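W.,

You were right to be curious about this one. When I first looked at the sequence I had no strong expectations either way, so I just let the prediction run and decided to look at it fresh. Below is the sequence, 573 residues in total, followed by the output.
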Amino acid sequence: MPIDILNTQQLDHLSIKQMPEYFNAHDIQLIYTAKNPAWQFNILSNKWQLGTKHTLYLDFLNKLKIPITTWVALRVVLASQAEIKAFGTVQGLRGAIKAIGDDWKDNLKFQSAFNKSNDACKRKLISYFRELNKSYLIELLPLKEHFKDAINFIKKQSYPNPKKLKGIFDPEKGIYTEEEVREIHEKLRINVSNLLKKFKNNEVPSLKLFEEFEYIVGLLLMLTIYRRPIQLTMMKWSDILPVGISFKENIHSRHSPAPEFDSEFSDVGIIHLRIFKAKRGYGFREYAELRSLRLEPEFSKLIGIYRHFYKLLLSNSLSLRGIDLTEEELEEILSRCPLFPEQQLFTLSFSTKNELFSAIGHQSDSMHPISSNLIAALKRASKKLSLSSSRIDSFNISNNRSRHTVITNAIEKGLSVVQAAAITGVTPSVVSSYTNLDISSRIAIDEAMAGHKVLEQFTRINLSELKSMDGFVVKNEFDDVQGTLRDDNSCQSCQSKICKPLGCYGCGNFSPFWEADHQSNLAKIEQKIAFNTGSTPDKFTLRKLEISRLYCQATISLINEAKLSEKGINCFD
């Protein structure tokens, strides 16, 4: 950019329509290259294509009542950022520029507009002008000179940090209670179990059925690795390898940045994931997280099933459009495909194999969904689960709420700030806000909700009715009925390591029987807790026992209250 681009006295006498001629006459740079080098844009255009799915619209600048010099300067600001920053960063700065509006025309109006702006807008402007002020690039001197008053004003402003956590125990936006976490896991377990029954081993699934599976896997992955949806959109099949195989060495994975540390070898069949960073202006698949993430055996197996049907559908859709691939070619193109693809991957036609391989590259965002589309799809999948709890009629699986919950749980269990931060891939400073939370409030919510849930589950069925419900009743070792099941099939994939009926307390599928001996069950639960605490405890089993005890106690308490009420009523008969 020539030094005099914003200092030419003739500039303010020209109109927007005369800008192309002016730029050409003075040999001023018109074409810029985006951070993604595959894309270029004209600085005077109102539509900048910065990526496959990333378009920046600037027609609002033409409507501002500002000097033409400022009009050019703002475009140069955005162009210089688009060359080096991720699209989200440039888009955010565009929003901040638009928020100031006509008040870019003089410094006093700019200061007034800045003070009225929200914190997000202030952060964008402060970050940019601080960066501009520190720059030693000679090309940016005209911008520094043009915005010198704004820079001097910004120097005196404090950076508005994001607000501290608010409403962390709010039923709609705060952390999930343990009841709600169990509800999520239970509904997902049942949904996956029912969904897998619809697939046949080597039969190509319908696109509709595949997408249903795709977004359930997306929800499970979001809840398992606690990463943002935008990070899920970056993932390709080359980011999934068996533990023991390095991302730096694998033929399909070595084309992208690799983690410094791979997960160590463990059980056979375990997979580990490569995750890419999404904040701080990082580009698409530009920087991998330091360590790969290892998945548990059961989820690794589910990912394998998902991959099998993904591969079948992809191969079939390409074959129907005249592209027949060898097994080696199919594995190669699959490794380049997104983990959660757009529908057009299975519907788009390619004239040749070369066109197919050119369209889908190792680092290309082709066929990858944008973050907002994946979030919307995951929300739809979550709604279909019909999640509910004692404190709220319905709720959805949310990335933010899940991350809040796991960090809160980590702090509650005594993990350090650094350890808690590692779980979700955030910085320790982000987690420090959680250390002052009143965790006792969380426990109080769970205890209060237990009574409400048990009250809803109670069943007053006589013995003659129970006899006709064989297969839908829960019995103890003495063949005494302890409760009923709403759906016997949902118990088939139950992961509870506690036998019936002890493991049934607190489960939404179980309704305790009024006349059962719950006191004996409570005593057995207490014995198991004492044994597990005294030996080397299995944390999952111990936590499940504690939950069973909580709900069994609530069951006994409600039965006793009801029986006392009945006696009181009978006294007046």
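Here's what jumped out at me. The chain has 21 helices and ten strands. And, maybe more interesting for your project: The chain has three domains: 11-155, 198-397, 458-570.

Coffee later to discuss?

I.
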